[in-house]
Write a structure and sequence with these properties.
By secondary structure, the chain is mainly β. The chain has six helices and 21 strands. It has two domains: 209 residues, bacillus anthracis domain (Immunoglobulin-like, Sandwich), CATH 2.60.40; 118 residues, Sandwich (Immunoglobulin-like). The longest helix has 14 residues.
Length: 339
Amino acid sequence: MKKEQFNQDMNRIHVPVEKLVILEKEAINRGKKNKNLKRAKRYSILTACGLCLSLFGSGFIFTGVAQALSNIPLIGPIYKSFNDIASDKVESEQLMTSIDKQDSQNGLTMTVKDAAYDGNRFMVSIVYSGASALSMEEQTIGLTEVFINDKPIDAVISSTHSNDINSKTIIEHHQLTFSNFDEYADQIEVSVKAKDVFGHNGKWKVSFPLEKVIGDVSIFYPKVKTDLYDNKYRLTADKIIFSPLSTRVDLTVDYPVDMDLDDSYPWFGFSVVDDQGKRYDKIKIQTGQGGDFGHHMVLTLPPMNKTPKFLILKPSSQNSEGFSQEIKGLELMVPIENK
């Protein structure tokens, strides 16, 4: 397999964007915490959103494939192909750390190509390869998990997207937003573990140290809130964090306590507009709920090179016909004081 041919295959990746968005939104909804179920607080990059199924085929690795994989220039293009919110900055500023470590077991090779971490988000790309054809529709369901410092990751937003480069190569893009900002040190120990994937019985593991991306981090505490809406709901903007891989907005959602008891607490969709009129929605914004009963919401937007003077948060909910409808009474302008 020649490098030029592999690059051509990379450029032909087709990612069904709208389908991925729907799957991710559904997975996030399934990830809402329910205190009555007493769910254990064990989250990983594949469990926080429910996107924990990796469906693959089987294959056998050979030396030529392993050598070709070590030279694939995945930094930047792979994240753009999967529409990661930081892909433009990742490519322009070379923010990914090249890893290129692999583990071969039972005829299957798992290669961690690159990764990045900025205290708020974590991203990693993984290549699975074999000499025989791999299938995205394998009946045997495997599991791939990512650990930091030998512990599962507590994530408020996470997802895994995969696509085949050719019949013998599949690439995965894993991304997550931590429940708590900056809970890890400047250097972390990452482990990617796979079990019984591609219809093969066995375990694969790649471990590596990872340095935090160097870049400016700005934190603001606006503490602005909406009026009470419909005698039920209020939003408070607690914190906004600008970091190399994302823009993070932490919100508190207030609602009647009886919604805790019957698990009917709200899940609002969001779009965000900045001071220049640029709108962040659909694949340019991610939402997640942390803690119990969705009182803590996190919005993750693409990283911003220039700090805006304000952000306008536009909540929405599904109407009776299943369409998203903005809730004007909960719209919130969040000023950002540049000190």
